[in-house]
Amino acid sequence: MGSVKIRVKDTNLYYGNHHALKNINMDIYDKSVTALIGPSGCGKSTFLRCLNRMNDLIPNVRIDGEIQIAGNDINKYDVILLRKKVGMVFQKPNPFPMSIYENIAYGPRIHGTKNRSKLDNIVEKSLREAALWDEVKDRLKSNAMGLSGGQQQRLCIARTIAVEPEILLMDEPTSALDPASTMKIEDLMENLKKQYTVIIVTHNMQQAGRISDYAAFFLNGEIIEYDKTEKIFYKPMDKRTEDYITGRFG
Ligand SMILES: Nc1ncnc2c1ncn2[C@@H]1O[C@H](COP(=O)(O)OP(=O)(O)OP(=O)(O)O)[C@@H](O)[C@H]1O
């Protein structure tokens, strides 16, 4: 377990009049996987989007409180740099309609790396870290849209890693994938957490149990319980957590 990487203080979020996140306080640890769990509509994705200020793009959103990364208020960052530091992988793989190589090289180029051999190195390193290199090394020039869904999702992970983030946000990254691809991504998480702070939204309780170190149970915009995953799963303090974990609702 690492030190506190993200500190969320007294955070509320409103979509117009709808109070979607209620007084969230949470320390998220470096070099570990934190799972956000809870029934549909409880605010997990909204919370994830707070961490890289993606909610700023949605009209009529109001956020108060403070979120710090390594002690610094995220509102004080340049938003482009914040999103480089805090990468995001979405539910549906969304590769760019260009070659596998270009998908990975795109971000580093935008951030100023022009040298071809440096880019080659970044592409190889990122694809290796995302456990995709061996499958694609002979067809880096092929269009990424020709990859399988599971390969596309690992490509999206590689693309995120390529700009050297510190934090990886994953919003149900395996829910559109078959079981074999899901296992590959779960295996990958073990390695990713050695380098990054990983935060994952998942509806799959087995998955949360297998891959996360910490779990936060959300309900109606509140965090009901947040602790080591073992504790949340085997000795929850709150009856509502227990009911959710054991499948009584949600
Ligand atoms: N752009 C938006 N505008 C208005 N309300 C929104 C918006 N996005 C989400 N909401 C509302 O905020 C609440 C929380 O939604 P959110 O998507 O964060 O939940 P979730 O826990 O991620 O759900 P799911 O598990 O179904 O993805 C819901 O009531 C939802 O309808």
Automatic annotation (TrEMBL):
Q: Which terms are listed as keywords in the entry?
A: ATP-binding, Cell membrane, Membrane, Nucleotide-binding, Phosphate transport, Translocase, Transport
Q: Does the keyword Amino-acid biosynthesis apply?
A: no
Q: Which residues form the signal peptide?
A: none
List locations, semicolon-separated: Cell inner membrane
Membrane association type? Peripheral membrane protein
One CC-aspect GO term: plasma membrane
Query: Sorted alphabetically, which InterPro entries does this protein's record hold?
Result: AAA+_ATPase, ABC_transporter-like_ATP-bd, ABC_transporter-like_CS, P-loop_NTPase, PstB-like
**This protein's record includes keyword Membrane:** yes
One Pfam family of this chain: ABC_tran
* SUPFAM superfamilies associated with the record: P-loop containing nucleoside triphosphate hydrolases
Recorded GO terms, molecular function?
ATP binding; ATP hydrolysis activity; phosphate transmembrane transporter activity
Name of the protein described by the UniProt record: Phosphate ABC transporter ATP-binding protein, PhoT family (TC 3.A.1.7.1)
Q: What is the lineage of its organism?
A: Bacteria, Bacillati, Bacillota, Clostridia, Lutisporales
